[in-house]
Amino acid sequence: MWSFLLAASLCLLAVGHAVAESCNAYLFPQSVTDLSVATVRVDHLPILRDDDRCPAAGTKCEGKAYLVRGNQVLVTGTQGRYRCAAYWSGKRQTTGWVASDALTPAPMPALEGDWADTWKRVQGDAVLTIRRRAGQYAASGIATYAVQPDNVRTGAADGTLRVITSATGAIASFTQNADDPTARCTVTMRQVGPWLLVNDGASDDANSGCGGMGVTFNGIYQRRLRKEMPPNR
What we know:
This protein is mainly β.
């Protein structure tokens, strides 16, 4: 199995991109528009926690999780000299900050299949379904957030998927309640290798047009019928 790191920072090498305010699995990724792939170039790279005063406190933020030389990463945001990273290995996603100077640019992985499929979020309960209809894509999704076993908040959205292709890749999105600013829900997504990265604009656990407090479509998704992660390369 390969180990794939997905990072939530807005650019690996460029300066002046948006700052990532937080780095946790619940809100990752906070952007899908500026993505690049990199490879870890050091033998041991700690993944820092998203606690108070982190990642600025450096080694005081270290936990047990770390990366090793050769692990591939996808980066999209920054805070100081750190990138926000979500590491997926086997059935576990670990999210935290990593030092940007320990990363080297790498090519984007080839896409695996069309947009149309049923995609399941690997961290938390959310499903996106994309179907071809009359030459277009129709998208729908449902996401939940369990406060308690008997208190589960739900969000749902649907619409026509619009795909915009550029030299840096294709970005797709759909919007529900486009004419109502108080209820508008826009879900934006991008395919990277076997993954679908999704963002609905959530930056905290407040209410949004996509659902009640704590509900978001943000996340890393995989095709629902996929039984295993892609092999290491």
